[in-house]
Every structure is written in structure tokens, then in C-alpha cells.
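User: Quick sanity check before I run a bigger batch. Here is a single chain. Can you write out its predicted 3D structure?
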Amino acid sequence: MPRAHALLARLFDYAGVFAPASLPLEQAIARYAGYRAGSDAWMLGRFIVPAAQLDAFSAAARPHLPRGAVAKCWRLSVLGGVDPQTDVAQVSSFNRRHADSSDGAAIVDTVELKVTSVDDVRAARVWASRGFEVFCECPVGDAMEGLLDAVARFGLHAKLRAGGTTADTVPSAAAVAQFLSASMARGIVSKATAGLHHALTGAYPLTDACDSVRTPMFGYLNLVLAAGIAEGAGRAAVQSGDVIATVERLLSVTEPPRLAGHSVIDWHGAHGPIIEGPLEPFAVSGRALVRSIGSCSFDQPVAEARALGLVS
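Assistant: Done. Predicted structure follows.
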């Protein structure tokens, strides 16, 4: 088993149809099928698709979807639009169609929704009442904690947008630390998306364009292990100044960690050690808080994990 199995197993939800990759649906599906068949498939999570494209997905994925009595179905996460009733009908129709593996085994079991008000969060319950896992994208800022209160009250999950295709979409390390600690304090599971296809925090091009501006972006390793610090602190202490400061430091550190022995991590920042000890407890705690990461690339985060020695 890879030394970072607890950290990386099913971590990367594949969002190839979204910017900056912006692949045609057929190409994204073909890549996902290839990743599922490869040796790194254990790191691959769900395929992310807008609810409005489910019919197109069914047609394009037909040659790739598994069939037969022992078919291992593809799991999808859909992005909901502005009309929940239409989206629910589309998803329900999709799941009925693909429940019979003769049409290709696939299931939508997760929904991601943007919310800007408590009413939006309340409306998201229509999905939860039908058995879907629901991740509510709560913008960081003054309204975030009130939205997280509603997410917790209605038994839903939270979603963090950690970047985008312009520099102003990347939140501060302090804002991300506050999101993680506030989610932990409320017992909320979360996922994250955007700008997290690099392993380590650093300055990277925002897009693949040759003239793309470089801007600070968070590393997925920083994020998950920072979540591990928040989770490990416990709900009573996680919003203390010391814990939030440590989470923020780990989100910001750009130096790579040292991996010693079988699975021991030693990660220092400019002002001394941040994490020292066995990797697995931090990874398990981090994944308990951050379920998955949406990434428009699968090759890049896997390659960077390999370069760090997290996988062989």
C-alpha cells in the first residue's frame, strides 16, 4: 500500500469539463475512463458534470460505462443550476436509466450547489431528502459563518472555492483557515475545488496559456494536512487563535516536507516546525474534514505526489 494511501485515496474528483482545462465532454469522459483503468485509479474520485449536461453525458459515456452483473458503476457529482426542481428531475431520470447496467452502470450520488443565503441552504434540503450528499459552496467572507450555521443545522456539507482563473478568486490563507476551523467546530464535512491541482502552495500560472499570470495558489497537500490540524484539535479548541494560526501557517508554507522512514513527515516553515510525526494520523484527520478536491487535472496532482515521494 502506498505510504500516502490515507491521504490520497479517492481524493481527486475529476472536473475536466471546467476551466481552466475546459475539455469537451467527450474528451473528459474518455480521459476519466482511462484513469479508471490505470494504476493510479485508487486516487480518482467522482466525475463532476453540470446537471444540465446529464443527457449529453449518457450519450457520450455509453461506449465507456461498465456493464454486467459485477460492473463497478461510475459515481458522479452534479453541479446544480438555478432550478432545483428541473435538476432533481434530470438526476432522477439519469439514475433510473443507469440503474440497469445494460445501459452502462453509473449513479449520481452527490450534488454541489452555490449558496449565498440561508434560504439557498434551506432549499438544498430537497436533494438531501432524496438521499443525495449535498455540498453547499459557501463564499468566504462576512456571511460565511452564518451560512455554515445553516449547513450544519440542515445536516448538509460545505464546499470551499480555493481559486479560479483570475488572481482575485484565490482567498487568503487566513480565510481558508477560518473556513476549515469553522467547519470543524460545527462538525461539517467539506470538499474543496479550484486551484488545487498542485501538491504544494506556491506561485503558479493560473491557466495553461503561455502568457498566464502567476499567482499564489494553495497546495492540496497543504490543505488536507492543515485540515488535519484543525480536525485533530477537536471541536472545543479548533477556533482558538493558536490553532487557527497553525492552520494558516501550514496553508502558506511553500517549502516541501521531508518524508522519512516508512511514513513519517517533518514539515518546517520559515519559523520552525509545523508538523512532525507519522503522516497517517494527520492524513486521516484531514480527510475526515475535507472529503475530496475537485480538480480539472488528474495527471498533474498525481505527478506531483509522485515527485514528492508520496507514491511510487
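The longest helix spans residues 84-99.

User: Great, the batch can go ahead then.
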